[in-house]
């Protein structure tokens, strides 16, 4: 059986004072209300000896806060690639004196509803709803009346809830710019078609990356030289797409892969074709997957700032929580989408165009 919880009444009985006196002493108001030093010392000594722990939830509720936040994700917690989302959120919460309750749904709507209800039943001050991959999703009704932030996901319909996502559009522009600055004018897309919006349905990152790429090329009067729409951005699909590309363009010059796994497949088929990266073909990609720096040569790629995303989501949520407690205005307009820069990790996969 578990140890019986020591209450304030237990401390008062053992110290020979009233529960009110114990409450005042342990809340730091003993001097203010002229409780003698001897009594204060006795209360503290008895409290420590008995192992008394204050009921933080009750104290918090009396002050309008429990100093706890909820973090509900689909597959973030069990994903190696996006684990830093939680790391950033945990560190930011701890720095501000908050605890983070974490739950994972594995994409099940019923599990998500149960987790949200459980966290709201425990009076969390706010909730972060996170996704492994940036996607559009409906806002659960449970979040309409609580401070909430969407992390790595965007609302399907207009909402007052803000979102924190990577700046995929800016990364797309910068990716194309890196190849243009190296003198490349024939840039082939692996993962999306050359036309506007030619990406797999529901791929938010792909759509925004493609938009940025096309805008950067358009500034130079260019269009993508070719493109391959790919539903699942996996190495084997990148391999097949680039193999098909080489039949039409034996010397493609530059590839812009829509994620690193596609680039892994591209590396393999280019090597088999006797083409060298970057001497014959330059490659730029996205995500900074763990193997990107171990390729030979290393893959130049735009990293998703997972830790910064997690940290920013907590900071933004606390702005909403504190604004709600004070009745003051929120720092940013409700529903704002906060886009964080994706760092460009330049390695050895880009060379000047021949």
Give a verbal description of the structure.
Keywords: DNA-binding, Repressor, Transcription, Transcription regulation. InterPro entries: HTH_LacI, LacI/GalR-like_sensor, Lambda_DNA-bd_dom_sf, Peripla_BP_I. Residues 6-63 form the HTH lacI-type domain. It holds the Pfam family LacI. This is Transcriptional regulator. The longest helix has 21 residues, at 306-326. The chain starts with 7 loop residues before the first helix and ends in a 9-residue tail after the last strand. The protein has eleven helices and twelve strands. A six-stranded parallel sheet has the order 2-1-3-4-5-11, sandwiched between helices. With 354 residues, the chain is an alpha/beta fold. The chain folds into three domains: 8-54, 434 Repressor (Amino-terminal Domain); 68-166 and 306-340, Rossmann fold, CATH 3.40.50; 168-304, Rossmann fold (3-Layer(aba) Sandwich).
Q: What labels would you give this structure?
A:
434 Repressor (Amino-terminal Domain), 6-stranded mixed beta sheet, Rossmann fold, alpha/beta, 354 residues, 6-stranded parallel beta sheet, 3 domains
How would you sum up this structure in a few lines?
This is Transcriptional regulator. The chain is an alpha/beta fold and 354 residues long. The protein contains eleven helices and twelve strands.
